[in-house]
Every structure is written in structure tokens, then in C-alpha cells.
Amino acid sequence: MSVWTVLLAAGSGTRLAEASGGVKKQFLRLGGKPLYWRSLSTFARCPDIAGVMVVFPPADLDAARKALAGLLAAHDPGVAVLTTAGGVRRQDSVQNGLAALPSDCRFVLVHDAARPFVDPALVGRVITALREGHEAVIPVLPVTDTIKEVREETVLATFDRSRLAAVQTPQGFDAALLRQAFAHAGEEFTVTDDASLVEHLGRPVHTVPGHPDNRKITNPEDLALLEDATPSPVPVVGYGYDVHRYANPAHPGKQPARPMKLGGYPILGAPEVLAHSDGDVLLHALTDAILGCVAGGDIGQLFPDSNPDFDNMASGVFVSEALLLAREAGLTITHVDLTIIAQVPRIGPHAQAIRLNVAALLSLDKSRVNLKATTEEGLGFTGEKKGIKAIALVTGWKRS
């Protein structure tokens, strides 16, 4: 029961042309990305969505595809994304998108890219109604203003607003029914929303609650909505764990022995550790935790111990490189919690120096860096004084 979204980004935007400097509204910038990307990202976060078909203006198709490919390379949405050219009318664009969908698509959602503030809960309500057996579903809001029919500045009638509803997108359909509705309508019947095609076919259309924030960018005054629509940052957590063995002359390892450093701070008189780099177990765990916040892989992928360039490299470099990647991905670190697990050496005398060093590396106030140390009560390889472990937990905010 595959669900796809046809995202309509094929309009000409004539009502906004002067106010937007001639830029079509689907290509206006929101959070540094084109307006249609906001809706695409929302649908991609909905677990039931298998893919998004983006419908672009025919004249802009090649350039839009190229720009979209760059966005997809930098921000993988996790669902299939396809493109096709729109048509003269809105319904022609919908029909083109519908025709280009995969054959296994059971349900289709049609959404206007000019409604960038749609939320996953609304999408979920439409999909749930489809799965419950309704063949056509639209989100609606109650009409709060009195509506009158007017001709040539004269009122002809006043409508009962309790029976009226304002319609939004996405509108959801059984894909086969929507194809049938298009075939029945032919070329002569022009509509402003897709549900009208189903109504014209004589089939029922089910409603679900819409959302007042799901507004459409139509007129010049609506551009103010984009100025206020900075994406909310997402809370993230990254976890890092690392282990290093102590050097033992009786059983030399394959890697060289290094003087112990923790958080970039030298621990004099401590056992040497076996490592390709400088062997700072705490900063290695911290690097992994930073990468974890932005799904950036791990330290071994970025700095493999098979690379001679990293021989005896200061682990602070690894942290700095991870921070560069994380900041490019929009991460702001707010707190770090570190734990060192070792029977020897005693960490207490060095704890504050380690903590201050880590805070400086991360450009954080020391109040945002916590350091704990514990033993394993003589158990395991740390208890037997064969090595040392470190755990790092990084929390922060990431721009969505």
C-alpha cells in the first residue's frame, strides 16, 4: 500500500512576481533553501511516505533538477525523490505527476509547494483516513468569517458558514480513483482543487481537521510569513566510547607506545598507551560523540589508523575536524558529559585541568563540560590495570 506525494512546484507565481523580484514562489528562499524543499522535507519525515514526485515548470525543469540534485546530495531525505514537468493548468501538473508515479503506488497525496508549513501530524491524519477505507480525503478548517456572494458590488446571498469549510492540501486519494476522475473530467472541466474532480465523478470526499498554520503563500503580504519562519532547531545527542590498551614490555603490541594524554592534558607518571595517533582515549570518544550528533560516521572512517599521516597526531586535531563537519551540518553544542574508567592512574588530581582543556577545545564555558572518573572495582581489563576506557555524551541543537 505504497504512499507517494505529488508536490506541485510548477506554478508561475504571477501575483507575487513584482514583490518577489520575478522569482517564482516555489523557488523563494526559506532557511537558505528553496521554498518547495520545506514541504519535501516534511513529507520525507512521515514514515508512511515512500517517495515524493516534484513537479516543476517545464521551462525551469533542467535547472531545478540540477539544484535539487545538489540538495539531495547534501541532505539525504531518506525517501525516493523524482521529478517531472508540469502543465498549463494546475490539474495538468497533477496529472503529469500522477502519470510519472511508480506502478505500485496505491495512495497519492497532492500538495502545493506554496504551503510550506504543513506538519507531519496533518499528513498522518490524511493517510490514516485513506487506510481506513476513504478513497478521497481533504483537510479542512471551519470558516470563521461571514461569507457573502457579491456581484458588481451588490450582495446576492449570505451563506450559512456552519456548512462551509476552507480547504487545504495535502489532499489524499486512492491513486486509481484519481486517475479515473481525470479521465472522466476530460479537457473541458477546470478545477481549483483535486477533490473537485472526485466530486464531479459523484464519489464521496472525506474530511479531516486541517491546521491553521498550513497557510498558502499567494499574495505579496504573505511574504512576511517566510521572514518569520526560521526552522526550529532539533535537539540531538551523540554518544562516543573508546578503549586503549596499556603498553606492556612483556607483551608488546602492534602499535607504538605513547605517553598518556587525557583531554589533551599530559598525565605524567601514568602508563603508556598503545595507539597509532597520540592515544588520547578521552578525545577519541569525544570525537565520536560529536560525529554522532550529525550522523557523521565515526573516527575510524575519518582518521583510519592505517593512514601514516595520522601517526602520533594530536587528537585535538580530530576533535577540531569533527567540529568543522558538525558546524557545517548546523550543530551547536550545549553540553558535554565525560567519563573516564581506569584503575590507574588516579584521575582526581588532573580532573579540573582536563575539564578546562576540553572546554577550550570546544569553545564552551567550563560550566558546560562535566568530567567524571570511576574504577571497575578490580574487574575486567581496566580493573587489572591493562587499559583505560572513556565515554562521551554530547548534547546540542541542530538546524533542521
TrEMBL record:
Cofactor: a divalent metal cation
Pathway: Isoprenoid biosynthesis; isopentenyl diphosphate biosynthesis via DXP pathway; isopentenyl diphosphate from 1-deoxy-D-xylulose 5-phosphate: step 4/6; Isoprenoid biosynthesis; isopentenyl diphosphate biosynthesis via DXP pathway; isopentenyl diphosphate from 1-deoxy-D-xylulose 5-phosphate: step 2/6
Domain of life: Bacteria
Residue stretches making up the 2-C-methyl-D-erythritol 2,4-cyclodiphosphate synthase domain: 237-395
GO molecular-function term, one example from the UniProt record: metal ion binding
Annotated binding of a divalent metal cation, by residue: D242, H244, H284
The name this protein goes by in its record: Bifunctional enzyme IspD/IspF
